[in-house]
Amino acid sequence: MSNINIASIKARTFDAIVIGSGISGGWAAKELTGKGLKTLVLERGREVRHITDYPTTMKQPWEFEHRGQLSREMKEANPIVSKCYAFYEGTEQFFVKDAEHPYVQEKPFDWIRGYQTGGKSLLWARQTQRWSEFDFEGPARDGFAVDWPIRYADLAPWYSYVEKFAGISGNKDGMDALPDGEFLPPHEMNCVEKHFTDSVAKNYSDRRIIQGRAAHITEAQPIHIQQGRATCQHRTICERGCPYGGYFSSNSSTLPWAAKTGKMTLRPHSVVHSIIYDEKKGKASGVRIVDSNTKEMIEYYAKIIFVNAAALNTNLILLNSISSRFPNGLGNDSGLLGKFVAFHNYRATINAEYEGYLDSTTDGRRPNSPYIPRFRNVYKQETDFLRGYAAGFSAGRYQNENRSGLGEYLKQNILNPKLNDVWHVGSHMMGETIPKESNFVTLDSNLKDAWGVPQLKISVDYDDNDVKMTKDYFEQLSDMFTKAGFKNIRTNDNNRTPGLDIHEMGGVRMGKDPKTSLLNKWNALHHCQNVFVTDGASMTSTSTQNPSLTYMALTARAADYAVKELKKGNL
Ligand SMILES: Cc1cc2nc3c(=O)[nH]c(=O)nc-3n(C[C@H](O)[C@H](O)[C@H](O)COP(=O)(O)OP(=O)(O)OC[C@H]3O[C@@H](n4cnc5c(N)ncnc54)[C@H](O)[C@@H]3O)c2cc1C
Ligand code: SF4
Fold this sequence. Notes:
Elements: H1 6-11, E1 16-19, H2 23-34, E2 39-42, H3 72-77, E3 104-105, H4 133-136, H5 138-142, H6 152-166, E4 168-169, E5 183-184, H7 191-203, E6 210-211, H8 222-226, H9 254-260, E7 264-267, E8 270-278, E9 283-291, E10 297-301, E11 304-307, H10 311-319, E12 339-342, E13 344-345, E14 348-354, E15 370-372, E16 389-396, E17 399-400, H11 407-415, E18 418-419, E19 423-432, E20 440-448, E21 454-459, H12 464-483, E22 487-493, E23 505-507, E24 524-525, E25 528-533, H13 548-567
Bound molecules: flavin-adenine dinucleotide (FAD) and iron/sulfur cluster.
Iron/sulfur cluster (SF4) binds next to loops.
C-alpha cells in the first residue's frame, strides 16, 4: 500500500463507498449522502458533467462529419457495440469501444457498456414499468430458479418514492400484471395506435395496449425544478445527453442532488479491482482501486459498500474479491456466484401496413411509444413455455423522400416529399428468460485488461423456452394485427445474440436460503452483511418489464435499511 500513515488512511476513509455512478449507483449516492453519510463514489470512467459534457446535444445533422452516421472505420473497429441502435456519431463518446475493454465470449454475447459518470443512464430508452406480484412470485409458482425473498408489497412504497423524484409519465391503467405508479401526464397515441388499442380491446378479454411509461418530465413538478430539470421538449435525441434534464439520468438528477449535500466525493478514473475483506472483523473494510491514469493501486475504507457496477461488472468485482475466508469470491460459500445469469429475449419483431386514416399523418416527435403488457401465463400456465413476453408497438406515416435522379429533377424530388400511401406499424418482443445454472460468467484465468483485472468470460445462451415463446409471439401478434386490419404482415426472428437487450441480470441473486442464493432480502450478502448489491446482478428472475426502475427502488430500500443498521451499530 502506498503511503501508510494515519493522515493518509483518514483521508481515504468514508462512511460508505458506492462502486459505479450509473442508474443504481446514482441512487445509492443520493440516498446515503441524504441520510448524512460521508460517501465515496468510485467510477471507472471519466467525469461527464450535466450539460457541459454533452458535446453533441445541440448539433444539427449537417454539423456532424458523417451526418450523424457511423464511419466505416468506426463500424469495422467496433463490430459489437455497432450493433446497438443507439450507437451513432452523436453518441459514440458515451459507449465503451470493443478493443478498449475486451472480454471473453465463451458463447456469443454482445456486451454493451457505458463507462463514465452516469453510466448507461445517459443512453437508456427510459421505459420504466413496475414489476408485479406475478414477477416476484414467478419462480416459486412456476418452479425455476429460487423464490424471491421479497414480494411486490415490499417494493411498492419504494417504487412510489423513486418515481416521484425521477419523474415518470404514464396512465393509471389498472392492470394486475403492470401496477400503476406515481405518474406525470402520459404521452399521446396517434390515430392508428388508438385504432389498434380499440381493436384489441374489442377482440380480446385478456390483453390491452397502453401508452408506454417513460422517465420523461411531461409536466415539471417542484421536486424536478429543485433538481434544475425542466419539462421535456420532445427533441428525441435524448441519448446525446439532455440539457433540459427532460429525461432521468444520474447526471441530471441523483448525482447533483447528492453533491449538494456536501457529503459526496466522486472519484472518476477509479477502476475497482476488488473488495477488501477483514478476516478478524468478519466483514468488508474497503475497496482496492486502480487509478486508470496512473495505474497506481489505492485502498479506500468504509463501513458499508454498495456494489453498483452494472450486473456483469458487479459479478466480476465480487469474483475477483478473493481472501482466505472467500477463496472463490466474496460471499460465495454457495458456489453460485456468477451463475443463473439471465436477460431479455428481444430477437423477434413484426411489421405490417395499414391503409386506413389516409387523411391523417404523424406530426411532431414523441420520446416514447405504446406498450403491450404481458398477457401470456399471467394467472395460470396456459402455453407450452414458461412465463411470457411484453411488446413495444408503434405506428407512423412518414414522408417518402425520392432521392432518385440528378440535377433539377433530384432537387424537385427532395423539395417535394410525398407522404407514404400507407401507415407502417411495428412491434418488438420483450421476453422473460429463465435463469439457469448453465448461463454463467467466470473470470478468465489468463487474460487481464489494461489495469491488471482479469477479463470476464461470458457463457450465456437462449434455450428451447425462448424459441417457443418467439413462435407464440409471432402467432399472437399476427392474429392481433390481422384483426386490426393490418396488411402485409412480416415476422422476423433476427436471432441476435444475447446481450443486445442490455438487460443482463443475475449472478448474485437474492434468496431466502444462503445455500442457494448470495443476497438476503435487503440486498446484503448473506455472508458479508455490510456489502450490498442493488443492480441487475441481484435479480432472482427477469420479469418481462424493463428492469431499471426496479434497481432504483431496490437501491433506495437497501440504503434505508443499511443506514438504520449502521446507526444501530449492527454493521
Ligand atoms: C441503448 C439502451 C437502452 C436502454 N433502455 C432501457 C429502458 O428503456 N429501460 C430500462 O429499464 N433499461 C434500459 N436500458 C438498460 C439500463 O441502461 C440499465 O439497466 C441501467 O443503466 C443499469 O444501471 P446500473 O447502475 O446497474 O449500471 P450503469 O448505469 O451501466 O452504471 C454502472 C457504472 O459502473 C461503472 N463501473 C463498472 N465497472 C466498474 C469498476 N470496476 N469500478 C468502478 N466503476 C465501475 C461504469 O463505468 C458505470 O458508470 C438501456 C440501456 C441502453 C444502453
Ligand atoms: S426529448 Fe426530452 S428528454 Fe429527450 S433530449 Fe429532448 S427534451 Fe431532452
